[in-house]
Design a protein that fits this description.
The protein is α/β, with parallel strands linked by helices. It folds into 2 domains: 36-71 and 291-433, no CATH class; 80-274, Rossmann fold (3-Layer(aba) Sandwich). It has 17 helices and 9 strands. It has helices at 3-9, 13-46, 51-59, 64-77, 93-101, 105-111, 144-159, 180-192, 224-236, 263-273, 276-286, 290-317, 326-343, 350-361, 364-373, 381-408, 415-433; strands at 81-87, 113-116, 119-124, 132-137, 165-173, 198-203, 243-246, 248-249, 260-261. The chain has a 7-stranded mixed sheet, sandwiched between helices. Helix 10 (263-273) packs antiparallel against helix 11 (276-286), helix 12 (290-317) packs antiparallel against helix 13 and helix 14 (350-361) packs across helix 16. The longest helix has 34 residues, at 13-46. It is elongated, with a radius of gyration of 30 Å. Mean pLDDT is 75; it is low at 1-9, 13-62 and 368-383.
């Protein structure tokens, strides 16, 4: 036997160690497919695994068509109210939209978009899942040559088939008696569409107060000038409107208290004119927990995707090599945040999603690293890692929903609230996913 043959048969200790390590690495990677397959089978038995989840599991993303399909289903079940706001500029139409939605004047202004030549449209919270749709007439004055064009455009909107509840809201300032054009518009619309209820909203009450620096009195205001003007306007529109209400929706900087004076009366009057489901939706919107309720509606949809990504994260985390899966998991979670942003109408890139994760996850990053280190525990590590990966991904998705929900509602996201939601979601998700084993 040659020396070379002896060397080949009796390799050096360092070569034997290298070969042994290489064999272990190769064996581990070869078994990864089996582990993922087994984990997938067990996960699908443990959790509901619908069509959207399967697609996300395969591709780590969700087709926009899938989101659109879910939104369409939910949209068809929404009690949506279409309000046509008809009145002169500065008569308080935008203020009504702001009072009912609670969003800022700037957001209302940005939300109104040209609809036809003489109308603008605003959907709250957005066009895909609207609870309120406002159509605002623009340029309505006492210029007779424009009046018929405005009537034709509004009629065109009303002629379209819609399953939504509809209402006409005529807005008139308390001290404005030049209402011939408004009455002409209302008359033609009511003759053509007598079944659509009509509400007269008399606005800007403070302009008729005895003193310009007076605050709002107890509702309803008993000032003689206000009552006299209100009676006269009711008489002008008595054959056109089903109800009339006094409101004064001002800006915060105007220093009138309350800002939305007469909102409860306005809400109750709307409820009398709308079907039960739409009336209930209006009440819920004006409830102090309206933002939370609206957020829950979106989160119920978002959770379908969070579940899919959590399942994918758990399966990836079952790979027994510490830190080998972190880059893939990070990309997976960034994809999830991007999909949720798309749901909430917030278009963000993958790099922006990664930055957002860092911003909202906070101390959870340390838990993610700890999840990887647990893999060093023989036998037990991968099972714990899979469970924690799923729980962390779920908590991250819940936090992202709160973040995007605040943006959707025109609010500044509250980091403390997001951290609290993530902490609670993580604790609950650990219990839910603890049966996962690699």
């Amino acid at each position: 036997m040659t020396e070379q043959q002896n060397i080949e048969q009796d390799p050096k200790p360092e070569d034997r160690n290298a070969a042994s390590w290489k064999d272990r690495m190769t064996g581990a990677w070869q078994s990864t497919g089996d582990r993922i397959s087994n984990a997938t089978d067990k996960l699908t038995q443990l959790l509901p695994f619908d069509r959207a989840a399967q697609k996300a599991f395969q591709w780590f993303s969700v087709d926009e068509a899938e989101i659109a399909e879910i939104l369409k289903t939910v949209k068809n079940e929404l009690p949506t109210t279409e309000a046509l706001l008809i009145g002169k500029p500065q008569a308080g139409k935008s203020s009504i939209a702001r009072a009912l939605t609670g969003v800022s004047a700037d957001i209302i202004g940005q939300g109104f978009r040209p609809h036809t030549q003489h109308t603008e449209r605003y959907a709250y919270p957005n066009e895909d899942l609207p609870l309120l749709i406002f159509t605002d007439t623009v340029g309505l004055g006492d210029v007779n040559q424009e009046t018929q064009s405005i009537i034709d455009e509004l009629s065109g909107d009303l002629e379209k088939t819609s399953r939504h509840a509809r209402i006409l809201i005529l807005t008139v300032k308390i001290n404005d008696f030049a209402t011939d054009t408004l009455r002409q518009v209302a008359t033609q619309l009511r003759e053509t569409y007598p079944n659509i209820p009509c509400l007269l909203a008399v606005t800007c009450l403070h302009e008729a107060y005895p003193s310009l620096d007076a605050d709002h009195p107890e509702y309803p205001p008993q000032y003689e000038a206000v009552q006299r003007a209100f009676t006269a306007l009711q008489a002008d529109f008595k054959d056109l409107c089903d109800r009339a209400v006094l409101v004064d929706f001002t800006l915060e900087e105007d220093d009138y208290n309350p800002t939305f004076y007469g909102l409860e009366a306005f809400r109750d009057t709307l409820a009398e004119l709308l079907p039960e489901a739409e009336s209930r939706a209006i009440y819920q919107l004006l409830d102090e927990e309206a933002g939370q309720q609206l957020g829950n509606m979106y989160r119920d949809i978002g959770r379908r995707y969070i579940l899919a990504f959590s399942i994918a994260a758990a399966t990836l985390a079952a790979v027994p090599l510490p830190f080998a899966t972190m880059p893939v998991l990070t990309a997976l979670q960034a994809s999830m945040v991007g999909v949720l942003g798309n749901l909430y109408k917030q278009k963000i890139s993958l790099s922006q999603a990664g930055g957002l994760i860092s911003a909202i996850a906070g101390g959870f990053l340390a838990q993610a690293v700890g999840r990887e280190l647990v893999k060093f525990i023989p036998g037990l590590g991968s099972a714990i890692a899979a469970s924690w990966a799923a729980a962390y991904t779920w908590a991250l998705g819940e936090g992202a929903c709160v973040y995007f929900g605040d943006l959707l509602g025109g609010k500044k996201p509250d980091p403390q609230q997001i951290q609290q939601v993530m902490s609670e979601a993580f604790t609950q998700a650990k219990e839910r996913f603890k049966g996962i084993q690699s």
